[in-house]
Design a protein that fits this description.
CATH class of one domain: Alpha Beta
Structural class: alpha+beta
Shape: elongated
Strand content: 25-35%
Order of helices and strands: HEHEEEEE
Bound molecules: zinc ion
Helix content: 10-25%
Radius of gyration: 18 Å
Number of strands: 6
Distance between the termini: 34 Å
Largest sheet: 3 strands, mixed
Oligomer: single chain
Length: 113
């Protein structure tokens, strides 16, 4: 249920950037390796944004694919690479790197109040 806290954080960022303007759209980037569920965030969003300038804003989710970090040469490459082999040095010693993030990409506000 950690979607509640992330949604609170998202709303906080959105309201701060909107500075009182009515928010129409919120674009989010969510890592594919994060365990955040779009539907849960949407649900909490509807609850939390009620009565704020962001009420009724559309949420748009953009998935960020996971990446691996090569432990040999430090190269970062996509997790869907065959055999997890580093695209730079060919090593298969890698650690999961990107793909766990969840943040506000951009917001759209309505000029009319
Ligand atoms: Zn490498």
């Amino acid at each position: 249920m950690h979607e509640l806290s992330i949604t609170e954080a998202i709303l906080d960022v959105v309201l701060r950037h909107a500075a009182g303007s009515r928010v129409t759209d919120v674009h989010l980037t969510v890592g594919e390796l994060s365990s955040y569920v779009d539907d849960s965030i949407q649900l909490f969003w509807t609850e939390l944004s009620r009565g704020t300038p962001a009420e009724g804003a559309m949420l748009h989710f953009k998935k960020q694919p996971g990446t691996l970090l090569c432990l040999v040469c430090g190269n970062e490459y996509p997790m869907d690479t065959p055999d997890f082999q580093c695209s730079s040095c060919g090593s298969a010693q890698a650690a999961p790197h990107g793909g766990r993030e969840c943040y506000v990409d951009s917001i759209e506000v309505c000029a009319e109040t």
